[in-house]
Amino acid sequence: MNTKDIQQLIDLLEKSTLSEIEVGRWGNKIRVSRQGDSIVTQNSGLVSPPPLSESFARTTTENTTEEVSFQGQQIKSPMVGTFYRSPSPDVDPFVKVGDHVKKGDTLCIIEAMKIMNEVEAELSGVILDIQIENAQPVEYGQTLFLIEP
Hints:
The protein has about 150 residues and is mostly beta strands.
């Protein structure tokens, strides 16, 4: 969610008789509620707490995910879908941090519209970091792995 989306929620609450609105998207959730004469937001995920002004909240967003200090080539998601580290829950993951991979090795699967799409290594190297947890949604262009050539 961006600042514009949050501001629209605040405006909607100001113009209505509702006492609370909660919206969730891709693991990020924000709740805007009326408390007396002011509007307060509560959130979880990547949205930061808002500063309050006079009688209404004005909000900003920050990405609270820590920046990774690893140097390496990023392997990004080629599509929107669900990230899986292994072909099934009872099987070991395709790769772990520290594994050496060759160009063309399968790194993970992204499920999109009930189709399992293998993501292959674009280069040979060592897996430095896995940026996504198993069974989590991913977006197009989101970093999945860091590989040191």
